[in-house]
Amino acid sequence: MLVIATAFLAWAAYPRHPNLAAFDPEALARTDTALWRAYYDKRYFALFGGLYSLSRDQYGFSPLDSLRIALAAARAAKTFQPTRLRTEAQAALPDLIAFYGLIAKAVPTAFDIDAAARTELDWWQARRENVTADIYGLTIAKTSAIVYGKDNAQLREAGILRAKAMAYREARGNAMTQAEWNAVYEQLRASYLALKRGIEAR
């Protein structure tokens, strides 16, 4: 039994070569749509499971790192959800910093982890403050620019498309139909296709 446990831990912790640019836009959009549904339904275990799968399947992190990433991201989301004021929302910042610290190994060049976390939290809060999707979408794009080390029209398009998907869902509240969730998926798919183009642009 000890040998099996040791072998499992070695497999789980064995270093992989994760890559934040290696995602499949359609698969990522499907996963992200499911994550949104779990978040709004406050199904935090499902949110954690989806985040774990995303880290493993789309970005290639080890099982152990995927677990740590999913825990940090799920905790940040759960902490942020009941807050309303920006001062209250700061409680989610430590977990966001931990999250970006963990995913930093999956990009070829170092980025400012603290800046990425604070910019992420900024657009989380901005979408609650009657800021238009076109505006906070640019903050989403700024987060991507920090992480990927690029700033171009495709990243800005991706950010705005993602923000518009959020605005679409928010406008419909908790009475979302399956057809409307399918529309969210299509918007996220377009966003991730644009992000992929932006990352790959020379």
Question: What is the secondary structure topology, with strand pairs?
Answer:
Layout (H helix, E strand, L loop, with lengths): L1 H12 L11 H16 L3 H15 L4 H18 L5 H4 L3 H11 L9 H14 L6 H16 L4 H20 L5 H23 L2
Helix pairs in contact: 2-3, 2-10, 3-4, 4-6, 6-7, 7-8, 8-9, 9-10
Total separate domains: 1
Main β-sheet, in a few words?
A: none
Shape: globular
Helix content: over 70%
Proportion of residues in extended strands: under 5%
Secondary structure class reads mainly alpha
How many β-strand stretches? Answer: 0
Q: List segments where confidence is low: pLDDT < 50 over at least 5 consecutive residues.
A: 1-14
Looking at how many chains there are and whether they match, the oligomeric state comes to single chain
- How confident overall, as mean pLDDT? 92
C-alpha-based Rg, rounded = 17 Å
> What is the end-to-end distance?
51 Å
How many helices in DSSP terms?
10
What string, H for helix and E for strand, traces the elements in order? HHHHHHHHHH
Model description:
There is one protein chain. The chain has 202 residues and is mostly helical. It has one domain (23-200). Helix content is 74%, strand content 0%. It has 10 helices and no strands. The longest helix has 23 residues, at 178-200.
Short description:
The chain has 202 residues and is mainly alpha-helical. It has helices at residues 2-13, 25-40, 44-58, 63-80, 86-89, 93-103, 113-126, 133-148, 153-172, 178-200.
